[in-house]
Amino acid sequence: MSSNFEFLKSIADISEETFKQLQSISEFKKIPSGTQLVKQQEVPSKIYMLISGAIRCYISTENGKEFNKTFYTPISFVGSLTALLKKKPSSLAFETLTECKLYELDYYELMELCEKNPKLKALYTKILELLFVKYEKRLIESISLNATDRYLKLRKQNPNIDAVISQYHIASYLGITPVQLSRIRKKI
């Protein structure tokens, strides 16, 4: 079976049949850099499994200032979960920073399959748990670490982050200016 099957099986015990059900509602796509997968204030219906490339999740203020919330690198699950659950416009935007290869799934079709397949529902639950742990960890780091330590942690998690994501976006993610990031880079 495929490496995608093996990856999902490492999260939860799914069968080949369950994987084939997932494949039947997913579409493989190559998305160019700079594409908005979800626009801010758009009601989304899709979720994604990122296989290659980088995606950012950000919020844009009324005056046009952008704040990066999350970077997604392979293999990641991407989507505006709150907007999907509430069937409301997304407060966040999701944009490809590089060319991306991903699988796109209709969230509501996935939920229908989860209702029929307990193994798939268990996989979905495990993925949500992993995402919750990741976001909780990010929240704690943003409160407890200084900018240099946050940057070092980001580089440890994504060793080639500087080659893939622009300094402007990294600085926004860290909550600092590009000038401050440049100073941190010079120090280390």
From TrEMBL:
<protein>
    <submittedName>
        <fullName>Crp/Fnr family transcriptional regulator</fullName>
    </submittedName>
</protein>
<dbReference type="InterPro" id="IPR000595">
    <property type="entry name" value="cNMP-bd_dom"/>
</dbReference>
<dbReference type="Pfam" id="PF00027">
    <property type="entry name" value="cNMP_binding"/>
</dbReference>
<dbReference type="InterPro" id="IPR014710">
    <property type="entry name" value="RmlC-like_jellyroll"/>
</dbReference>
<feature type="domain" description="Cyclic nucleotide-binding">
    <location>
        <begin position="10"/>
        <end position="113"/>
    </location>
</feature>
<dbReference type="InterPro" id="IPR018490">
    <property type="entry name" value="cNMP-bd_dom_sf"/>
</dbReference>
